Amino acid sequence: MPFSSFGLSPALLNLLAEQNYEQPYPIQKEVIPAVLGRTDILGIAPTGSGKTASYVLPILSNLQGSSALKNRHAQVLVLVPTRELAVQVRDVFILFGTELPERIKTIAAYGGVSINPQMIGLQGVQVLVATPGRLLELVDSNAVHLSEIETLVLDEADKMLNLGFQEEMKRIFTLLPKKRQNLLFSATLSEKLANINQIVLHNPVVIKIESERETIDLIEQTGYFVTLEKKGPLLRYIIKSRELKQVLVFTSSTFQADNVADKLCKNGIDAVSIHSKKSQGARTEALREFKTGRLRVLVTTDLLARGIDIEFLPQVINYELPRSPKDYIHRIGRTGRAENPGEAISFVAPEDQHHFRIIQKKMGKWVTMIDSANLDLKGF
Ligand code: AMP
């Protein structure tokens, strides 16, 4: 089934070809026609499955030829849990909107940065991609109105529930018109999510894509038994001896992220840490440098484990293991994206061994283990 079979406009088909999207991914085959048909959708799909384009393309198509609205009345609202995801989704709307005969104005609104440019930007907005808190601030200052929303998208809905956005979301729902199209996407289907479905969705088409399994199979996983004090030398040994060019390193605290990045820099390895305590400007800048390959190592906490798409990221290193097996899968899912192979390396300290066995059991896959005591880490 080629993209041309969906009835998308020639401008969109051209851009798809330019972006080397040759064939629709499984989720796109199901979501695109359903969104074009204006039905509600519950999409269970891991990040990296092509979910963003699956809703962006038909939404842009539906907006073509729709009547112009009152100023500051968005037609499409996409709610996302993090600032980074807001920017990423906005960029996909802008990318695919560039050649459309009718220009679509898309704005990303998220906290941690000045509100004024967002207020000004909302002039004439059609697609608004927002995190819940900032959205409500903008609504409260009359910078945007939600009464004309035709399509609501909840992206990474499971994450939004975990991050405790329920109260804010409840308020947002009261501001939306009753008649609208709802698209809800989540990597997992939890009980909490099932409740939200009942409130939000009307006779949804349920689309479940089980590609997380396939993604995991594409990732080569290795574990290193290592003592706490040898983690630093081991990290430098792996990066230097294998001449790794683009590595995402995960720690469990912001303090440790800074610490690891500092030590790498002191040892001549270009590294920057990003986490919730860094300014939005610093986060955006570091992520951009890393994505474009100018920054060799990005050290982060679980802030980035979900949703952020870094094309062809070859290596992910768990300097510290995440607490939950689910987070482990999300972290390693930063590599092996969209059918490209990747590698995930995990440092397993003596006190982590039991926990790492649980992670492997939950994942249904055993990881090759190497004992770092047999490596010559002197000088690293
Ligand atoms: P997402 O799950 O939306 O974060 O998308 C994961 C990655 O897959 C992104 O880098 C997209 O640009 C890419 N992608 C999505 N759909 C396709 C497709 N049909 N062909 C090639 N690449 C795609």
Tell me what the structure shows.
Strand 12, helix 14 and strand 13 (342-348) form a beta-alpha-beta unit. The protein has helices at residues 10-18, 26-36, 51-63, 83-97, 116-121, 132-140, 157-162, 166-175, 191-200, 211-218, 231-241, 254-266, 280-291, 325-332, 353-363; strands at residues 41-44, 76-79, 106-109, 127-130, 151-154, 181-186, 205-208, 219-225, 247-250, 271-274, 297-300, 315-318, 342-348, 368-371. The chain has 2 domains: 3-209, Rossmann fold (3-Layer(aba) Sandwich), CATH 3.40.50; 213-374, Rossmann fold, CATH 3.40.50. It is an alpha/beta fold. The mean pLDDT is 90. The strands form 2 sheets. The chain has a 7-stranded parallel β-sheet with strand order 3-4-2-5-6-1-7, with helices on both faces. It has a 7-stranded parallel β-sheet with strand order 10-11-9-12-13-8-14, sandwiched between helices. Helix content is 40%, strand content 17%. Adenosine monophosphate is lined by residues 21, 23-25, 28, 47-53, 309, 311, 337-338.
